[in-house]
């Protein structure tokens, strides 16, 4: 079943937002283009395509959660990303990670591992936390 997760962080300068629609499917149920994450955990890409940085951030969080997913689905699980939209907000590809983490927590009843964002002001107004993990990309913003 397709489930939508809406990530929102409001701030004095507007905020960050992402709408992610996805569903968990059994391996072999679809032939969509995909990215292997870890031992039977795959990320199936949306038919409309996806921006490379968004894919990197989605993959990062799914990789952080892969062991938990494998425990729940020993035969593997495919995560079909149906859509990822950034409605009327500042665009930061890191927000894709926050959206997929929220979706995974709701879909699989996973615990919070400290993947967060807060408004801090200044030249780079948002501070991201990855639960102790190193982020996959190093950009001037990070």
Write the layout of secondary structure elements.
Blueprint: E1 3-11, E2 14-25, E3 34-38, E4 41-44, H1 52-72, E5 77-85, H2 94-108, E6 115-119, E7 126-130
Parallel strand pairs: 4-5
Antiparallel strand pairs: 1-2, 2-5, 3-4, 6-7
Helix pairs in contact: 1-2
Keywords: Plasmid
Protein name: Immunity protein 50
Organism: Streptomyces yangpuensis
Could you characterize the architecture of this molecule?
- With 142 residues, the chain is of the alpha+beta class.
- The chain is 25% helix and 35% strand.
- The radius of gyration is 15 Å and the shape is globular.
- The mean pLDDT is 90.
Specify Rg, calculated over alpha carbons.
Answer: 15 Å
- SSE series: EEEEHEHEE
Average pLDDT number: 90
Number of helices: 2
Strands, count? 7
Query: Helix fraction?
Result: 25-40%
Terminal Cα span: 35 Å
